[in-house]
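TODO from last week: model Parvulin-like PPIase.
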Amino acid sequence: MLPVVSPPNRRFHGVRSGLRTLLLSSALLGAGLQPALAQSVDDDGGVGAQPLNLPKDLTVFGKSDPNVRKATAIVNGRIITGTDVDQRLALIITANGGKVEEAEKERLRVQVLRNLIDETLQIQEAAANDIKVDPAEVQQSYERVAANFRQSPAQFDAYLREKGSSAASIKRQIEGELAWSRLQRRNIQPFVNVSEEEVKAVVERLNAAKGSDEVRIGEIYLSATPENHDQIAANARNIIQQIQQGGSFQAYARQFSEASTAVVGGDLGWVRPTQLPPELAQAAAEMQVGQIAGPIDVAGGMSLIYVMDKRKVLTADPRDSLLSLKQLSVLFPQGTTKEVASAKAAAFAEAIKGIKGCGQANEVGAKIGADVVDNDNVKVRDLPPQLQDILMNLQVGQTTPPFGSINDGVRVLVVCGRDDPASANAPNAEQIMAQLEEERVNKRARIYLRDLRRDAVIEYN
């Protein structure tokens, strides 16, 4: 039986919680791809690794200590310093709440160096193709990231320094992602074609599958050989433990996964279990939303999978309803005890019983000193699972039970309006064609980067 765990519950910080991770993603910058298949083939499209015809009995000449880890590197003449590694590592640690064990930090440090090498190769290749990213554009993207934290760029600079990172580290990552995206658009996308027959076949398969189960899967793929299988499996279990203790699945996928989906936090998109390799399909079908399973042996390595969501193909899902909400919240002063907080929460709950629809929410809020915030076009599925079931059963004008914590205060949501989802239809031909093109571009981009690694001159210090 596969080990299945659920990530820890997160406190709900309002209807639209802010970005909780410093690790940038291509989705954040508007350049993300949504691959729809799990990692099950190698870079050349074949299954598993190719044999090297190695002797069974071999002698190692010379010494190579795998425990000696190189901290810095020179990539085609460009130096990656220890400071570069430390500042990027600080982003990962911050994204995981600062709770990373020392041994885990060392593993992360090695992965960070690999990522910085890839990033450098991508920027260098873009420059060799006369692709340059305007610093003003990098600054604009950086300001959008700061805005996601509800901070000015200057405040965000200070925040990053406090955490041991820097604005320069994030800007470098932004530059790399923008440069690589443009290089793909120039050197890969023009040569990717999808025929009308392929699109038609996808539409027919979707219609035939209407009503069947579909899952949104996150995957962390780790390559492994028979010789290092046990070590990689131990690393995989350690990753699960870190996520279980509060780490971000997306952050770990981005840093550890060797699949092309690492850039989007391991997100495979919506797939039917039958589209996954048999080993993953069985686990995905048995898991509930929010659970992680693994390590699962697959061709060429092993995978950890995370069920992000479930739905039925081409069937309207009530969780796609759009709500208009009012949020009433009362904060507790610092140092408030559990007993005092419970009493105030009870008084708050009693006061909101008098709300008769959204028209009275502001009036009641003013009487009890609550902050009132309007939230429109909130999709039910984007809310915490604990609230989804409650809100789907509420009528317009009704309120949720009070929820919160001593640190975050107590709050309720009032339903002011609801737009139910329309009947689900198959995506149109243009959407399907775009999806197929993205998948093929993503695969070719992975091969492109592999070739850059092979041709690179890398010196480790």
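Done. The chain has 13 helices and twelve strands.
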